[in-house]
Amino acid sequence: MATATKKKKLVVLTGAGISAESGLRTFRDSDGLWEGYEVTKVATPGAWAANPQLVLDFYNMRRRDVCKAEPNAAHVGLAELEKDFDVHIITQNIDDLHERAGSTRVLHLHGEIFKMRSEMDESLIYDIREDMRLGQMADDGAQLRPHIVWFEEPVPMIQEAIPLVRSADVFVIVGTSLAVYPAAGLVDFARSMVPKFIVDKKIPYTSSIPNLEAIERPASQGVQELRGKLGDLGFF
Fold it and tell me: Among 2, 36, 130, 165, which residue's CB has the most CB atoms within a 10 Å radius?
């Protein structure tokens, strides 16, 4: 095992495909519908303004689904890489499956389903395990909303993700179509000479990315294959 001071930094960008294997569906596979809902009706600031109860109902349902889901072999495999690498997960997913699998450094680009925040002050964030409801107020007296980055909103955590990707010794993409920005643009910040891997059951267009190897498999199988390829490169 590599010593802590010599561990290479492995930065992993994960998306919907890794959580899908735990039974968490997303709009990615369903023609713009997200578990039967149009994205514009449940995941935009306009949706919140027009029908906050519907938005809360939707995220309450998603929170229950995440509570019932379990990490899969891909989540566990990435967590186990911490034995040999300084692993940093950047995830587009709002679930906590990476953390439950054992990953200790997880950056959530798009928010977290088990948190809520003031609709007025983004810094007032609270944990939530039960259903949210209208009339729940933050300390500033404003209605609490899901701590989720909705479509049409800025992604503040991207500013923390960019230097992580720039500093990576190895950059890996797992289960993302590279279609949602700004997350999809993170690959452009990886240094050209570092090894890069993309794991997905359907590889998106990536021919312009240097030093990239595609592993066209579902996330759980692909992460297992990834470990072997990292070994072939002499990282173990």
Answer: 165
